[in-house]
Every structure is written in structure tokens, then in C-alpha cells.
Design a protein that fits this description.
Blueprint: E1 6-10, E2 13-20, H1 30-46, E3 50-56, H2 59-65, E4 69-71, E5 73-80, E6 84-93, E7 101-106, E8 124-132, H3 137-144, E9 161-168, E10 175-182, H4 186-195
Antiparallel strand pairs: 1-2, 2-10, 3-7, 3-8, 4-7, 5-6, 8-9, 9-10
Length: about 200
Amino acid sequence: MKAPFKIEQNGPIVRYLHVHAPAGPRAAGDNNRLLHIYLSLVQTLREGAAANIVIPFTPYVAEVVGSYQRVDLHYELIANDFFGIGVDRGFQRRGEAKNEQMIFSLPDVMSLRSFPEDSFGDNESAISIFINQASRKVDLLRFLRSTNKVRIEGFLREGEKFIHLTCGKQQGYFDAMVIYAYGDILQQITSDIDQKDLGGYL
């Protein structure tokens, strides 16, 4: 199948951008269904590497995961009727209206399905996932605490990936995913979509 992504390449870094705008009103459960589909794809892309999750800080998640760090930067992928559909703004510093972010590692990203929906945001569920070696954790924390403008293209190393996904909860908020990879992974993405028969959902 033709992958439902807009693809751009900048040196060794390839970006895959997907936006899903429902044709009609959002049905109950749509958010969870798309979230699970996106996470299923992320789980395949992990290939056994560490998955570092960045979401808004909440006391509940802090208690569940135990070990976490606070960071200031959050990723902004706009997919709504109000500010734009598929606008990739990259990493932004936390403003007054934004919650502080937290980062933690998970051996299985599918376990995020058991987190309360409000752990990921109010109008939309937003999750950032870094897939890299455990030895890069210090570099990752430094990156997410930078006071300068940062770009994911300058951070990723060979074999690493960054995924940000957002799933709308309210009318006017859509579903989107952006994948940054060091090297071309289109075959891996399309193979997983075909194998899981996800084409009709993306």
C-alpha cells in the first residue's frame, strides 16, 4: 500500500508526517482506537531499543512510573480546525498555559493504554517518544532542558527515532503523527501497516 505519510528528507534524517481528519463527527472511542493504533506502530519501530516517553506531568503518572525526570520542552504538532492541520512546530519552551513535562522510560509502550486519558492532555492526547540507546539518556535530558532553540534533526544518531503523536478528543481536534528517523524506514512502516491491516484506519 502507499504509506499515508508526507515524506521529507534533510541529510540523513527523514520525516514522515501523517494527519487523519475524520470525515464526520468524532464517535465515542475514536481517540482511544487511534491512540492504540499509533502505539502499536511505535512498538514495532522500537526494535528492542529504549523508549523514553514525554507527557505532561501528573502526580498519578509520577506515582505509577516511579522513576522520572522533569523537563521544560514540549513538542508541538498542530492538528485542529483552529490553528492549522499538520503544522509541525517542533520543540517549544513551556509557556504559562502549558504543564511541566515529565520523561520516563517504558519497556513496553503499549502499557500507555492503561494510563488515564487525561494524563496526555485535555482537548487532545499528545505523547512524544524517543527511541534510542540507554547510554544516551544524559544527552536526551540535556536536549530537553536546553534554553536554546533545539531541533530533533540535530539530536538523532544512527538507528534512533523520534515519534510524536496526537489524538483529538474534542470536535475540531484531529489525529496526527510525525516520525523522525535517522535513515529511511519507509519499508518498515508500510510493512507493519500492511501486516496489521491498519490501512483503513490511517
